[in-house]
Amino acid sequence: MEFKLKSKYKPTGDQPEAIKSLTAGLSRGDREQTLLGVTGSGKTFTMANII
Fold it and tell me: Core-most of 21, 41, 49, 51, by most CB within 10 Å?
């Protein structure tokens, strides 16, 4: 099943690099990765861009 993110917002700040890094880890088969950020920093939005 394919998911498409619909949002009027675009990744900003460190989010694009985090998306690239996490996506590369998934491609390598990394079983565990950590996305660390303070409250309100966009962790959920970042993960939605990866899914």
Answer: 49
